[in-house]
Design a protein that fits this description.
globular, mainly alpha, 118 residues
Length: 118
Amino acid sequence: MDYLNAFWVGGLVCALAQILLEKTKMLPGRVMVTLVVLGCVLNFVGVYENLLEYAGAGASVPLMGFGNSLMKGVKEAVDEYGFIGLFMGGFKAGAVGSSAALILAMLSGFIFKPKMKK
């Protein structure tokens, strides 16, 4: 049942993104930012932990999961450092994912030899 819940919740998130792309004039970058902010808001309200318990990877893998982890990092940093934690927490929580994306993109560029379009 865990796989089924992860599948339909993750599919619902993807369908939401597709609806935003099709029915609005939002560009893909703005849709991605909207999903990250939605993950932050759901964490702030306290709903995201319940969603993670229910859907597992269906809720943690999409971009909403990245927003959740950013917000979780900010909350921890604010509890530890106070006001300055607002600025530190997001960087600390998002560093691993961002670094992995940059390093893997660079490695794939070396492996596959990308060319400019003409």
